[in-house]
Amino acid sequence: xxxPADLYEQHRELLxxxxxxxGARDYWSAYPESPSKSVYGEDAAPAGERAFTALLGQQFxxxxxxxxxxxxxxxxxxxxxxxxxxxRADAAGLVAAARAATAGWRAVGPHGRAxxxxxxxxxxxxxxxxxxxxxQHTTGQAFVMAFQAGGPHAQDRGLEAVAYALAxxxxxxxxxxxxxPQRGGEPLRLAKTSTAVGRGVGLVxxxxxxxxxxxxxxxxxxxxxxNPVIVKPHPGAxxxxxITVQIAREVLAEAGVDPNxxxxxxxxxxxxxxxxxxxHPDVRIVDFTGSSEFGNWLEANARQAVxxxxxxxxxxxxxxxxxxxxxxxxxxxxxxSLYSGQMCTTPQNFLVPAGGIxxxxxxxxxxxxxxxxxxxxxxxxxxxxxxxxxxxxxxxxGVLARLAEAGSSGTVVHPSTAVxxxxxxxxxxxxxxxxxxDAADEKVYTREWFGPISFVIATESxxxxxxxxxxxxxxxxxxxxxxxSTSPQVVAAAREAxxxxxxxxxxxxxxxxxxxxxxxxxxxHGTGANPAATAxxxxxxxxxxxxxxxxxxHHVEAVxx
Length: 561
Description:
This protein has helices at 4-10, 12-24, 37-40, 44-55, 91-126, 128-139, 143-150, 152-169, 211-224, 239-254, 273-278, 292-301, 325-337, 366-380, 384-391, 397-407, 442-445, 462-476, 488-501, 540-544; strands at 70-71, 86-87, 175-182, 185-198, 201-205, 229-232, 262-264, 283-289, 306-310, 316-319, 349-353, 411-414, 433-438, 453-459, 481-484, 505-507, 547-555. By secondary structure, it is an alpha/beta fold. The chain starts with a helix and ends in a 6-residue tail after the last strand.
C-alpha cells in the first residue's frame, strides 16, 4: 500500500515548486493548458471522449453514505442527451460519515494530506479530456475553454490552494523545546507538540458555470488543513465534480484512508440540501460560488461556520482615452463574448464621459463608442464557426430571460442574435446585447445582469466615472475593473479608486490578456474587500480560517532535554 507519506515524497518537488511559485507571483503552471497530442499523448483525446460517452445514460459509479434513490438533473446546453443519474444524498448520512472520517484524516498530518491532494490532482489531470467534455456539456463552455478552464487552469487553482494550506499548517513546528532559566537552579524545561486541527466538516457548494475552477480551491484548501469535505454540485453541473469526488475517494482508499473524507451530495432540484448542510452544526466551513441572493443568505445564516463566498457584482470599465482604439475595441469585444459573458469577471458597465474620449482615431462620443464596440463584436463574431468557439452556449434559462429582458426596451446598440453550431445543431448560442444608458439610469446598471449583457453609460466626466465606479462597487461589489487612459494622472486616480472600492484593476489592456482572465500563482481572484466576495483565490486568509493549532506540553528533565 502507498501511504500518504509516500505520496508526499513522490510529489515533494512539485509541492515545493508550487509554494515557491505562490511566493514569486511570476508565470508558473504545473498542468499544460494545450489539449495537444504532443503534450497529453496520441490517444488522450479519443480516450477521454470515449470515457465521457460511456457515462451517458448510466448510473454514475460512486458510493454515497446514506443515499436514498437516484436523481438525474443535468441537461446539455449543446442539446445532447446526458441522462447520467447519481445517488441522491442524505444530509445526516453525509455529515455522520464525514465526522467518522475526521480523526483518521487529522492523523495523516499536513505533509501526508498534501501528498494525497497532489496525487488526486495528478489523476484529475490524466482525465482532463473526459472532464473537458463533462464541463462542456454541463456549463456550455466551448470545448477548448472547457478543457483549459475546467481542466489545467482549475487544477492549477487547486494546487495553489494546496501550496498555501501546506505552508500555513507547517508554519509552526510540530515539536519544540522550551527552557526558561532559573536563578540558582536548573532551567524549567518543557517539550511541546503542535498539531494543525481542522475546523470541522467542510462543504463546497458548486456553481453551474465553472464547477471545477471555482470548486477546487475550497475543496483542496479544506482537505490539506485537515477537514473532510462534502461536495454539493449545482444540479445543472454535477458530472465534473462527481468525477472529481470519484478520483479523490479512489486515492484516499488506496492510501489506507477512509474515503468518506470526500463525499458527494447530489440533490433533486428544489431539495434545498445546500441550505440544510450549510446550517448543520457539524459543518464548520462553507465554500460557495453563485448568486448574491444565496451567498448573502449563507453569510447571514451559516453562523456556526466560516463562510467563503464568491458572488456577483458590477464589473466596471472606465474609458477616458487611448492611443490604440482598435486594439481597445478588440480586447473589450472578446472580453464580452468569451463564454457569452457568463463569467463572474466579465465587464458589465462601461463608463464614458458625455464629452467623449480622445483616441488615435479622433474624439468619440458615448454613442460613437457604443457603435464602435458593436462593430467590433460583429467583426469578431461574423464567422459562425469562430463565434460558436468563442461564445459557447447559454448555460440556463435564467440567462436567456435576462438577455430577452435587456433587449426588449431602451436604446439597444447591439442586439443579441442566435448563432448556429454545425457540430451541435440544438445548441443555444447567442451574441451579446449592448445598450446605451445615462448615469441617471442607476436602477438598471446597479443590478447585476449575469450573461452577455453590457451597458455603455454616459457620465459627466472621467472624474464622475470614477465616483460612480467607487460608489457602485462599494455597495454592490465587483470582481474586476479596468481603466483606459493615456493620462498617468487618470490611471493613478483609478488605482486609488480601485483601492477604495476594494477591487482588482486592469490598466490599458489592449493585447492578448483580458480583464476576465486570471492566472493561478500570480493573479488574485476576488479581494474580500467588497460585497462580491469574502476572500481571495488564493492567499493565506483563504486557508487560515480552516484550521486551528492545538498544543500539548509536558515537563522534561535535564537529562532528557
